[in-house]
Design goal:
This protein is an alpha/beta fold. It has 12 helices and 10 strands. The strands form 2 sheets. The protein has a 6-stranded parallel sheet with strand order 4-3-1-2-9-10, sandwiched between helices. Helix 1 crosses helix 10 and helix 2 crosses helix 3.
């Protein structure tokens, strides 16, 4: 039955888990199928064509597994090639883009800083996004080329990552930014450190819950919401019919460690082998 089919979510690594967590929170009835394309990461160093090939390859496997929607939980992939992916597949495909619009609306100084991978900031799609929503605001772009590998290594609270964050954030604050956009899903895992460095007067714009709400809207629009209700008793026991299945094109031992840190104990999910690395 289409309504009980899983939702496919993929990213170049663990960043998309922040989006998956928001989806799990908002849509507890829905089963999730997550792909970490770690064997081909980072996407930020790849061409648009290469990124699209990976997106197409993963989406083909997800659709073959019967998913009812796909979430591209990666800013770089979304800005690089989601239009091509949507043209290829008929099911709902939801992307992630930096929250420039809400940042501009939230800013009082009229200066917004965007923290993102260099590749995301160079895409025509991001340039179009900024032109559409910046208005009279000044949008300052801050490439963060070294953050993702440290986050993939789960070094969230290391001195190295804090020093990097300071080097990226302080120039934005010096130029008057009072709002910072997290333009990479990986950065959600260090959002607390970013907020601490930026200070209490600076707003931090995250988009994972907005993506989950858009997914919910698209599923409802297509009459694909899973209506197999979870009873209060089941919720209290922390059990439901929903399942969480994970794949990786990289090292499964490393990904298992990441999942146990960011998702839950090993008995709360399934980590399976799958030919997505081809």
């Amino acid at each position: 039955m289409a309504n009980s089919a899983a939702i496919g979510i993929f990213d170049s690594g663990i960043g998309g888990l922040s989006v998956a967590r928001a989806v799990r929170e908002l849509l507890p009835n829905e089963s999730l199928m997550y792909v970490a394309d770690s064997g081909h990461a980072p996407y930020g160093e790849k061409t648009d064509d290469y990124i699209y090939q990976r997106m197409d390859h993963i989406t083909r496997h997800l659709t073959a597994a019967g998913v009812k929607a796909v979430v591209v939980a990666c800013n770089t992939a979304t800005t690089a090639a989601i239009a091509r992916l949507r043209a290829q597949y008929p099911l709902p495909i939801i992307g992630v883009e930096p929250g420039v619009k809400p940042a501009v609306l939230a800013s009082k100084s009229g200066v917004v800083g965007v923290l993102a991978t260099p590749r995301t900031l160079l895409t025509p799609a991001f340039a179009t996004l900024t032109q559409r929503y910046a208005g009279q605001a000044k949008v300052i772009l801050q490439p963060c080329p070294q953050l993702v590998p440290l986050i993939e290594a789960l070094a969230f609270n290391s001195d190295n990552i804090r020093a990097l964050l300071k080097s990226y954030i302080q120039p934005l604050l010096a130029q008057g930014a009072d709002t910072l956009v997290l333009g990479c899903t990986h950065y959600n895992f260090v959002a607390d450190s970013i907020a601490d460095i930026a200070g209490p007067d600076v707003s931090i714009i995250r988009t994972e819950m907005a993506v989950a709400r858009e997914l919910q809207r698209r599923l409802a629009e297509a009459d694909l919401i899973n209506t197999d209700l979870i009873t209060p008793d089941l919720m209290n026991k922390g059990t439901s019919k929903a399942t969480d299945i994970f794949y990786t094109s990289g090292n499964t031992d490393i990904f298992s460690t990441q999942l146990q840190c960011l998702w839950g104990s090993a008995d709360t999910f399934s980590l399976l082998q799958h030919p997505i690395a081809d």
